[in-house]
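Weekly puzzle thread! Below is a chain. First person to post its structure in token form gets bragging rights.
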Amino acid sequence: MTKQVALVGGSGKLGGIIHAVINELDGYEVARVLTSSSDLRDLEGVDLVIDATTPQVSIDVVRAAIELGINVLIGTSGWSAERIALVRPLVEAAQTGAVFIPNFSLGSALGSALAAAAAPFFPSVEIIEAHRDTKIDSPSGTAVRTAELIAAARADQGPVNAPHADQRARGQQVASVPIHSLRRPGVIARQDVILSGAGESLTITHDTVDSAQAYGPGIRLAVPFALEARGVVVGLENIIDIGIQARS
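Winning reply:
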């Protein structure tokens, strides 16, 4: 039986990419396309909700799906660990699944996981992320997730060394990691994680040059996973099994 998907935010760029990928997936169809202003009661009756809206709308979409007992795949940026904690009890009580994917790119997931693996070996870690000038949130969800993974990996070592963090030009600290956000035309997405120690530095860079091609493989993996998921899952790295398991 074909699985019915409700895509919220289907008129946006990410929503369009997700729609195109699902059209090519066997056994799935986009039965309903909703906008950020649609009546969320229209989600009732589908097998999976996919959220590609905005940070302001996303939490309402997630709560509506959970209340209806429907699993939800969240591609919207802006979900920090603190924000996910707000809906985790709802997911667990409803015995549904909520899968948060800050970035559908396989390369991005690998880059963040590699940064987390390297983080315990360097006292200083900072992130520079760049996105198009139309992106409405900063820092990006990918950068937030990377910082949270770095902090988790450094649980034994403690926070990274971030001197003068009280100065605005030092960026926004997330889990002790300074993040610097660039918003400029002509950019899709780029993240540099710069790890520094005595006498050396290591930079892990991920650069998206074609979002449709970069996100497609991750979306194809995430959709069937989200349909069967239980509880809260955060990050594509927990789906592709790269050997570095992160905390949800």
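Puzzle host: Confirmed. Bonus trivia for everyone else. The chain has a mean pLDDT of 95.
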